[in-house]
Amino acid sequence: MPADGGNDKQRQLDQYRVREDGTRYTTDQGTGVEDTDNSLSVGDRGPTLLEDFHLREKITRFDHERIPERVVHARGSGAYGEFQVYESLSELTCADFLSDPSLVTPTFVRFSTVAGERGSSDTVRDVRGFATKFYTRQGNYDLVGNNFPVFPIQDGIKFLDFVHSVKPEPRNQIPQAQSAHDTLWDFVQLQPETMHFIMWLMSDRSIPRSYRMMQGFGVHTFRFVNAQGKGTFVKFHWRPKLGTYSLVWDEVLRLQGNDPDFNRRDLWDTIERGDFPEYELCVQLVAEEDEHKFDFDLLDSSKIIPEEEVPLRPIGTMVLNRNPQNFFAETEQVAFCTANIVPGIDFTNDPLLQARNFSYLDTQITRLGGPNHQQIPINRPIAPVHNDHRDGFHQHMIHDSDTAYSKNSIGGGCPATAADTGNMEGVFRHYQEQVSGEVIRRRSPSFKDHYSQATLFWNSMAGWEKTHIVNAFLFELGHVERRSIKEKVVERLVNVDGDLARQVAQGLGFPPPDATVPNHGRSSPALSMDDQPRSVATRQIAVLVGDQSDSGVVGPVLEALRGRGAICDVIAPHEGTAATFEVDKQLSAATSVLYDAVLAAGGQDLVPDGYAVQFVREAFKHGKAIGVLPGAEPLLEAANLPGRQGVVDGGAGDDFAQRFAEAVAAHRHWDRDVAAFPA
Ligand code: HDE
């Protein structure tokens, strides 16, 4: 993308962008440097001089390059975007960016994993952060969400405990970015409020195929407030235009070695190519008077409002259309804060949200070195900032005023508040909620049902999703050393579903539990990933080509797939040219887990290559579509697949391309019986 930017935020950032083209090397003070390769010394082999300011500056700068990583969500990737609302929502909210459909609001989004450190792998079993900063004309609005709609704890006071349990264990810092260890599962078995979240974590939602194919949720119930001060409860949802899709666990394990940057690379590459990811912002609205009509508490972040009860209303679209230019300056230094809200949006008394409102600003003071981090270009609002805040580490502004207090007469009474001027337009006004009660330290009794929605989630899963959940429990608990913890988890699962508990117990070698807790039988079909929008666009296809491939057959199919928006990589036993095709990757540098599908387009000459055979077998094991062009049958025979579901063969040309594209767009072919297939 060009650096000229198309919106107010990009124009603001342009002032800070620095390029070195055609420049001269200088010190930080702007003094020209003669040589940056040799220290100042006495003679050829003599001691280095302390006087060498260039050497000292270089070393000092290097010594201080690192800043603390985020305590959670350390591993992340960012992108700029733009948001536009479909129609004015002014009857619900006075937020300017939600009231004017002609307004394009600049955004910055950071996706992240939670538990892993900054250099950890992308494809781990974890929640994903989906944090959006809207640079609105009324100030920054941060929607700091996740790709799960529920959280493992109900009260922010438990956040430290939860995070300490999932992070590497204190004695040895093992394991990195994994939930499969004793302390997390000890926390889970002792805190039944985790159970709904744990069902999401054990499902494939925790291993998204792409940040472009993942939902986002504001999690808490927030409030819209209109110009008359009327409130409406609101839950925010981001819905990816490409549908919600996940990887499979075995694939994830192999990806961690093959490409630890799998999700980061995918986001970067697609934006560079101009295939801009899009998300629809939807809301669930609940009238104030309906607050208590649900069988759970709207203030409880371990609960969803089932979409069948309150349907989603699409309100606008965000397009991510620009990569950052400097990872540190933009993606690392961006500071989100749930307390960054604008007129028309307000909090509720969700105790998790209330704690977050303190935490986010507080944590940046250590991470970004002081209270002026809002002045860092990526964090700077496009709305003007005027107040009496002064000084502090790294102050960038030169405040040219005689006063720094309010009220004042010396400075002409400025900056003037709305109350001073009598002009209330565009100022934040808190929702006037009536509150009363005793000061207590106690969880609300309305938060106490920890299982109904965990059961709802389980009941809503398709067969393949249930199988993956059971396997996930077995993998995770298989890494727990203390049997007493595993046993207690199984006891918890009995409350979710007897069949689930039995399957997990069996795998762990426990006697089947007597399931005495009846399943309520309700489901919410919207929770399943079984039925998603289908498209071959941006899907990555590995095209296995050999020197004996028939270009006349392969060429038109490649063209037809690319014409439908698929990304096709030609993979051959060697670099250079294979048949008449330019090779993108050599077989030993590629692997099926980097792709959504495989097109076998090679002849007999690929069969002796174990990697080519493995490519096809592994793709089959992971449920991926496999296309077989004439001449490639020997490779399929060598792969000795146990079935043909999702294997497209017979013919070539556009008809074949269409059938194969449909199989790829289906994402995975779960009807295969791959349990016994080794890959
Ligand atoms: Fe966060 N969380 N969180 N969290 N969170 C942070 O803030 C915290 C919670 C989420 O890309 C930290 O700047 C507390 C829920 C995202 O920079 C920290 C509680 C949800 C990101 C923090 C929660 C989130 C963070 C660490 C419980 C989903 C990454 C660095 C009361 C709705 C933002 C930072 C980015 C980051 C605290 C719970 C999402 C420590 C105390 C619920 C996406 O302030």
TrEMBL record:
Compositionally biased residues, Basic and acidic residues:
1-23
Q: Where is the active site?
A: 73, 146
Single GO molecular function: catalase activity
- Which domain of life, per UniProt? Bacteria
* Pfam families linked to this entry: Catalase (PF00199), Catalase-rel (PF06628), Catalase_C (PF18011)
Q: Does the keyword Iron apply?
A: yes
Instruction: Enumerate the cofactors the protein uses.
Output: heme
Biological process according to GO: hydrogen peroxide catabolic process; response to oxidative stress
Instruction: Using the UniProt annotation, give all residue ranges assigned to the region (Disordered).
Output: 1-44, 508-533
Q: Which UniProt keywords apply?
A: Heme, Hydrogen peroxide, Iron, Metal-binding, Oxidoreductase, Peroxidase
Reactions listed under catalytic activity? 2 H2O2 = O2 + 2 H2O
Residue ranges of coiled coil: none
Amino-acid positions noted as binding heme in the UniProt annotation, renumbered to this chain: 70, 110, 159, 356, 360, 367
What GO CC terms are in its UniProt record? cytosol
Report the family membership: Belongs to the catalase family. HPII subfamily.
Q: Can you name this protein?
A: Catalase
Domain spans labelled Catalase core: 26-414
* EC number(s) recorded for this UniProt protein: 1.11.1.6
What this protein is reported to do is described as: Decomposes hydrogen peroxide into water and oxygen; serves to protect cells from the toxic effects of hydrogen peroxide.
